[in-house]
């Protein structure tokens, strides 16, 4: 086991330790279970030895002694059953509670990860780590924890009892152990790589399926069913291959370990018979020794049976702690408190940024937005428009320069405080499965029903809501397919309204709707933007004619800035963009 795996398993104790007293009590009861099980073969052999001795001496059978032994056997059997039940109950409680804590930590961690993490990782793979990997670990701990403890202690006690009965015969049982360990080590070394690949392939499959279900309508539209199915088959074939290799190789362990037990069983029976003839071993004790050989084999076979589960859990543990060890959004040691009355004065001061150090994107950008002004950012795809918003919200931090709000560098602000100043309406409207009212209230969880309705009226969506079944209590389905795209946009505008933001961000909010809905959304946005500093990203230049400041971006630079009329009069890049769109409309 490499250091990384060992470290991951050690960290599991941090989740078990809050329930350590239940854990230790469960282990103690497991030890009692093993002791009872170890004594049973020895006690079972006592009546046989007593009967043989009575017959050899031509004495009547000592039924009183046999009855006493039977009472002890019944007591051991009851003790074994009760301790086994209670230990299983306690360990199950510990595992379930610790895994609940682990899932909560992963959920909290995800909320602390930067946006850049989700830009570079498939959502399905992240979901797989939270569900499949945690479940694999939970099942392994629940199914194998007690059996492994019982197996190890069972082997120890069985070997100890064999030495107590006959030291030379005990060596046969002892020799079984290293042989089985060598076999296990060789097989685990071969199969572990495939278990790791299997978990990674499972994460890839979950990511692929999640993406395909999200874009199912698009796949149908472009007739990509066959191509999608082919890709799924490839991933499935890969997963099947890793699954076969890992299961087949780990499956060799049990028959090979069992072979050593059969050899030991034969040697014990033959050699034990010799010692009985010599008179150094009783028949009852030979019976007990043969049972102890099986008591050594049974737990070793049990461990080999659990090998696949344990190796899968080992791979899952690494994947779980990989996400828990991901760098979080860096928090300031001392955050500058926000002024009580934010005006919305925004300044970009020589800002530079790149996602990849080898490929500069935003370079030396500077501009000023006064409180209550509307600034529009336009330019071709890839110019850096959305990146500017990501920097403003501190989804990413600038490499050079500073972004200031009311004179305070945003890097010195607490991220939560900073983002509380903003309301956003994006091109991809996101609604979650709940009522329409709760989707609007998402912008302010303390909002009253009256405020929800008022926000809907401001966003020009109240009439639409009241025409729907159950009105504000209508449930949005999983993919929000029971409302149109334009209606989604209006609901997200209502959500922004209810949050009462100081600064508003509108990112391509009308790019995917028809002309009628565009006018409706524009009216709603005009109401929301009134008196607020607003940033608007738009491809349709006709929607930003009234902006106080228009920034024209190209290749990460602001190449022009001014209002609509001054930029048209300048006859530069903006005028070319505007005329090209106007020409397209004329042709239409």
UniProtKB/TrEMBL annotation:
<dbReference type="InterPro" id="IPR003439">
    <property type="entry name" value="ABC_transporter-like_ATP-bd"/>
</dbReference>
<dbReference type="InterPro" id="IPR036640">
    <property type="entry name" value="ABC1_TM_sf"/>
</dbReference>
<dbReference type="InterPro" id="IPR011527">
    <property type="entry name" value="ABC1_TM_dom"/>
</dbReference>
<keyword id="KW-0813">Transport</keyword>
<keyword id="KW-0547">Nucleotide-binding</keyword>
<feature type="transmembrane region" description="Helical">
    <location>
        <begin position="171"/>
        <end position="188"/>
    </location>
</feature>
<keyword id="KW-0812">Transmembrane</keyword>
<protein>
    <submittedName>
        <fullName>ABC transporter</fullName>
    </submittedName>
</protein>
<keyword id="KW-1003">Cell membrane</keyword>
<feature type="domain" description="ABC transporter">
    <location>
        <begin position="346"/>
        <end position="580"/>
    </location>
</feature>
<dbReference type="GO" id="GO:0005524">
    <property type="term" value="F:ATP binding"/>
</dbReference>
<feature type="transmembrane region" description="Helical">
    <location>
        <begin position="21"/>
        <end position="40"/>
    </location>
</feature>
<feature type="transmembrane region" description="Helical">
    <location>
        <begin position="252"/>
        <end position="277"/>
    </location>
</feature>
<dbReference type="GO" id="GO:0016887">
    <property type="term" value="F:ATP hydrolysis activity"/>
</dbReference>
<dbReference type="InterPro" id="IPR039421">
    <property type="entry name" value="Type_1_exporter"/>
</dbReference>
<feature type="domain" description="ABC transmembrane type-1">
    <location>
        <begin position="24"/>
        <end position="312"/>
    </location>
</feature>
<dbReference type="GO" id="GO:0005886">
    <property type="term" value="C:plasma membrane"/>
</dbReference>
<feature type="transmembrane region" description="Helical">
    <location>
        <begin position="145"/>
        <end position="165"/>
    </location>
</feature>
<keyword id="KW-1133">Transmembrane helix</keyword>
<dbReference type="GO" id="GO:0015421">
    <property type="term" value="F:ABC-type oligopeptide transporter activity"/>
</dbReference>
<keyword id="KW-0067">ATP-binding</keyword>
<dbReference type="InterPro" id="IPR017871">
    <property type="entry name" value="ABC_transporter-like_CS"/>
</dbReference>
<dbReference type="InterPro" id="IPR003593">
    <property type="entry name" value="AAA+_ATPase"/>
</dbReference>
<dbReference type="Pfam" id="PF00664">
    <property type="entry name" value="ABC_membrane"/>
</dbReference>
<feature type="transmembrane region" description="Helical">
    <location>
        <begin position="69"/>
        <end position="95"/>
    </location>
</feature>
<dbReference type="Pfam" id="PF00005">
    <property type="entry name" value="ABC_tran"/>
</dbReference>
<dbReference type="InterPro" id="IPR027417">
    <property type="entry name" value="P-loop_NTPase"/>
</dbReference>
<keyword id="KW-0472">Membrane</keyword>
């Amino acid at each position: 086991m490499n250091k990384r795996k060992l470290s991951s398993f050690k960290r599991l104790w941090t989740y078990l330790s809050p329930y350590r007293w239940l854990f230790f009590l469960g282990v103690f009861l497991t030890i009692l279970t093993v002791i009872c099980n170890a004594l049973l073969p020895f006690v079972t052999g006592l009546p046989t030895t007593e009967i043989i001795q009575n017959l050899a001496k031509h004495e009547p059978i000592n039924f009183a002694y046999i009855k006493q032994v039977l009472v002890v056997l019944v007591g051991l059997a009851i003790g074994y059953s009760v301790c086994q039940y209670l230990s299983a109950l306690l360990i199950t409680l510990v595992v379930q509670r610790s895994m609940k804590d682990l899932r909560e930590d992963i959920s909290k961690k995800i909320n602390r990860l930067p946006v850049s993490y989700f830009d570079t990782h498939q959502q399905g793979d992240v979901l797989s780590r939270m569900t499949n990997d945690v479940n694999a670990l939970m099942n392994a701990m629940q199914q194998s924890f007690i059996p492994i403890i019982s197996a190890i202690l069972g082997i120890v006690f069985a070997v100890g009892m064999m030495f107590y009965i006959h030291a030379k015969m005990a060596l046969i049982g002892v020799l079984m152990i290293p042989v089985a360990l060598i076999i296990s080590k060789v097989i685990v070394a071969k199969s572990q790589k495939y278990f790791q690949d299997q978990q990674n392939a499972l994460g890839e499959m979950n990511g692929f399926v999640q993406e395909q279900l999200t874009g199912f309508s698009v796949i149908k539209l472009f007739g990509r069913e066959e191509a999608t199915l082919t890709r799924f088959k490839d991933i499935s074939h890969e997963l099947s291959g890793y699954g076969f290799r890992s299961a087949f190789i780990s499956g060799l362990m049990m028959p090979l370990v069992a072979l050593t037990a059969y050899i030991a069983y034969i040697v014990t029976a033959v050699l034990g018979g010799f010692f009985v003839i010599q008179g150094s071993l009783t028949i009852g004790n030979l019976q007990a020794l043969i049972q102890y050989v099986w008591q050594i084999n049974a737990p070793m076979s049990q461990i080999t049976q659990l090998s696949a589960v344990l190796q899968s859990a080992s791979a899952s543990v690494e994947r779980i702690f990989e996400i828990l060890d991901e760098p979080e959004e860096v928090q300031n040691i001392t955050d500058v408190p926000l002024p009580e009355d934010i005006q919305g004065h925004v300044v970009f001061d020589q800002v530079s940024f790149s996602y990849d150090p080898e490929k500069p994107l935003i370079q030396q950008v500077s501009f000023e937005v006064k409180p209550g002004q509307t600034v529009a950012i336009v330019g071709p795809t890839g110019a850096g428009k959305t990146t500017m918003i990501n920097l403003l919200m501190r989804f990413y931090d600038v490499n050079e320069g500073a972004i200031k709000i009311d004179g305070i560098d945003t890097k010195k602000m607490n991220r939560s405080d900073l983002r509380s100043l903003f309301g956003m309406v994006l091109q991809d409207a996101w609604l979650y499965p709940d009522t329409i009212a709760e989707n609007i209230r998402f912008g302010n969880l303390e909002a009253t029903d009256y405020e929800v309705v008022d926000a809907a009226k401001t966003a020009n969506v109240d009439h639409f809501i009241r025409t729907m079944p159950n009105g504000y209590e209508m449930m949005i389905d999983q993919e929000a397919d029971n409302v149109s795209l334009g209606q989604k946009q209006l609901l997200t505008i209502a959500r922004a309204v209810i949050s009462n933001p100081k600064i508003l961000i509108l990112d391509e909010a009308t790019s995917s709707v028809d002309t009628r809905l565009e006018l409706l959304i524009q009216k709603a946005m005009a109401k929301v933007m009134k008196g607020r500093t607003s940033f608007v990203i738009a491809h349709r230049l006709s929607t930003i004619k009234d902006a106080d400041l228009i920034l024209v971006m190209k290749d990460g630079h602001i190449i022009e800035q001014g209002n609509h009329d001054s930029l048209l009069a300048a006859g530069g890049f903006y005028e070319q963009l505007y005329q090209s769109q106007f020409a397209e409309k004329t042709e239409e």
